[in-house]
Structures are given as C-alpha cells and as structure tokens.
Amino acid sequence: MIPLDSFERWLPLMPESAQLYLNETEIEAFRLLTENEIETQLKELLEKPIANFTIINDVYFRARWAELLKKLYLDDNLKLLEVATGDADMIPQVMARTHPDAHYFTANMNKALNKSLLNKTKDLPLEVEIIEDDAASVENHLGPEVVGIIAFQHAINDVIQAILCERVGVDTIYSDWMETLPKMIKILQQEITQSTLEEHAKGPFLGLISTLLRTLRKDGIIAMNHYMFQLDLDWGYPPELFETMVPMTRGWLQELKGCKEIYIDGFNTNWWIFLQKI
C-alpha cells in the first residue's frame, strides 16, 4: 500500500497535536499510551488499511485537516460544506479549534444521523447547520457562491457507492450504512467484473460536483481525501479499486469546467485531490 503520509514527520508531532485537537477526555486516553504503542499504531495507520479505530487516528486526521484548513483559509469567517458526513464529527472538531465561530454546513436526510451529529457538536464554538436534503439539492438551500471550502472527508467512495446503489434501488439514506455495506460491495464487484463502473457512476458523480461548485466562492477549494478500511477489504471490496479511487476520480474530474486541480506540498496525490474554482 502507498503510505498515507510520512511516519517520520508525524511521529514527533503527535504529543503536540493531541494537546491541540483533543478534548480533555481524549487527551487522557492518549496519555495512557506508551511511546511504543503510539509508534506502532501510527505506523499501522499510515502504512496499512485501517483496521482499528484508536485515539491515534483522531489525533492524526484532525491534525492533518487542521493543517489543511489553515493553509487554505486564513480568515476567521470560514464557511465550509462537508459532503457525505453521516454523523462523523472530525471536521467540526477541527474547525472549532482552527476557525472558532465559523459556519459548518452538511446535508443529510437521515434524521437519526443528524440528531447524533448535533449532539456531538453541541458544545463546539461553531455554527452547525444541517440541511435535511440530498447533497445534490444543497444549492437550493445555500444559494450561489456561499462557502469557501467543500470537504469530502473519506467521501469519494461513499458517494460513488450511493450512486450505484440508487441505480439498482438499494436504499442508503434511511438504512444502516454498515448493514448495507455488503450489498454495496457486491454491486462494486459486479461493476468491476463487467467493466461498467465508469459508465454508471462518472456522469452522476460529475453532476454532483458541478452542482456543488455553484455554491463555492470564486477561488474556493474542494478538498477530497481517501483511505482504505481493512474490514471493507475483508468483505470483498475490490482492492485494485479501493487503492486507486483517487487517481480514477481525478481522471473523471479533468472533464469538469469551471475548476482546476491544484497541488499542496506534502499531501500525497494518491490520497488527496484539490480543486480550485476559477
């Protein structure tokens, strides 16, 4: 596997990053780890498909997104739209520390997930707004050129899977994602075997990005990242697709008008894509 990042760079940064991006309860969990445990868990996180959800994962990914947000947006008045969030609170947790009093948007029609996300973020110094609609309709709620950053935090594969599921009538909005995942993987296997993935997914995917671009300010950024889960691979997720998800998507995105790809030093192009609206 191509490493997500530089182990040598991030190992010495972990204690300071924990202090910056964890809450008190999380910091206590981090302090219980030995130096050897921190080293082992970080190395596995960066160099293998993710098999365990640990406090090290939280430290690294929050610190990485914090580094990115500070590079991309220096002002305090950040407005960010996250796509395919579910109830994951990684980016709101980061924004509360890098851009307090900013405005975070996401779109989801699953009321249970929305309630969970609001509960996780209720004490953050951040305005959190959940649009109870499909991401493809978010422009109807936000209007044009409102947000400065659109984030796909491990969401490229989720969006593609949802597109393929909708095509064959498998619900991904009101169902439990993990219960539906085996069906998604089976659909992906069929798409790869029949060489139809691009035919069935590229058009709707680019249509979504085109819609989202209209909500983005001029010079604003769409930031996408990706990584692999061992569980998905164990359940049959095509490994050749999982590891090349970003390069494949990059090829599709080159057909889009109104944006250009930019590159940020230190962010591996196998796992990250950055599009700037022009």
Structure class: alpha/beta
Largest sheet: 7 strands, mixed
* Named CATH topology of the largest domain: Rossmann fold
Overall mean pLDDT stands at 94
Instruction: Measure the end-to-end span.
Output: 34 Å
**How many E-type strands?**
7
Corresponding CATH superfamily of the largest domain: Vaccinia Virus protein VP39
Please tell me what the overall shape is: globular
Low-confidence stretches: none
- What strand line-up does the widest sheet have? 3-2-1-4-5-7-6
Protein name: Class I SAM-dependent methyltransferase
Organism: Paenibacillus anaericanus
Structural features, described:
The protein has 278 residues and is α/β, with parallel strands linked by helices. It folds into two domains: 1-60; 73-277, 3-Layer(aba) Sandwich (Rossmann fold). 52% of the residues lie in helices and 15% in strands. The chain is built from 14 helices and seven strands. It has helices at residues 7-10, 14-21, 24-31, 35-47, 55-72, 90-98, 111-121, 138-142, 156-168, 177-194, 197-215, 230-234, 239-243, 245-253; strands at residues 79-82, 103-107, 127-131, 147-153, 216-225, 259-262, 272-277. A seven-stranded mixed sheet has the order 3-2-1-4-5-7-6. Helix 6 links the parallel strand 1 (79-82) and strand 2 (103-107). Helix 5 crosses helix 6 (90-98), helix 9 (156-168) crosses helix 10 and helix 9 packs across helix 11 (197-215). The protein is globular, with a radius of gyration of 18 Å. The two termini are 34 Å apart. The model has no long low-confidence stretch (mean pLDDT 94). InterPro entries: SAM-dependent_MTases_sf. This is Class I SAM-dependent methyltransferase. It comes from Paenibacillus anaericanus.
